[in-house]
Each structure stands twice: as structure tokens, then as C-alpha cells.
Design a protein that fits this description.
With 152 residues, the protein is mainly alpha-helical. It is built from 6 helices and no strands. Helix 1 crosses helix 5, helix 2 packs across helix 4 and helix 5 packs across helix 6. It is globular and about 50 Å long. The two termini are 26 Å apart.
Amino acid sequence: MNLLRAATALVSGLLFGFGLALSGMMDPEKVLGFLDIAGAWDPSLVFVLGGAVGVSGLGYLIRARMARPLLAPRFEIPTTSRLDARLIGGAALFGIGWGLAGFCPGPALAALVLGLPPVAVFVAAMLAGMLLHRLTAGGWPVTPPRQGELGR
């Protein structure tokens, strides 16, 4: 990885983490309040979701006008829209974990800087789950997908 790519990744990560902190996504109580639609629902994170969808949509529009990315040899866009048991099961596990803990991976990693023990426990459990999945379903070592295999 060259210096420009590394610097771009660092700035992007810092901007993402700042956005998570500013939006309240690093506060599990706020997230659980958003997910509690039958109780004391806090709809404020709808604006965060809308902003994320808008930025993603803008990214896809810009990508459509580019021949190749600025800092990579090619775009890595998923090519399949197949819904299978692995995808649905993974989404369900993600949602259950998010609903129980109030964290998803991005905000949890960003919240590590706060030094709170519950965040560290969540991240450790998340990493253990990733390792368990890799050992039982994905194989080891990890090999990057070839062009056209993403999303399968």
C-alpha cells in the first residue's frame, strides 16, 4: 500500500469515527432507543440512516462516471443479488447482536478509544465470533476474492 492510499484510509477512518461519535452511534442507549419502536422510540438516528444512504447513493453516481478508482486498479462492486440462508442467517445474527448490545462493528471499534470495559468485551466477543466463523465456515488462511466473486 502506498503512502497516499494509507493516508486516504486514515483520513476516511477518522472522518467515519467522528461521524459515528457526532451522530450518537457510539452510545448503545441511543441505538437501543432507536431500535425500541414499541417502547420509548428515539427516531433521531433515522437522519443518520438517511445521510448514510445519501452518501452511498452519491458514491455510486460518481463511480458510474469514472473508468477506474483514483487509488486502486479496479472497483470492487458486488455482482450478485442472490438471497441465501447464509446471508439471511448472518443478517439475523447481526440484528440480534445489535439489538442486545446496542453496538455494531464500526461504532464499537470507534468507541474503543473511550476505554470502557463493556466496549472492550463486545469487541473481543465480536473478534472471537469472526475467528470462529473463519475456522468453521470460511477456512484458513483468508484468500482475497477474485474479480467478479465479491458478494457470493
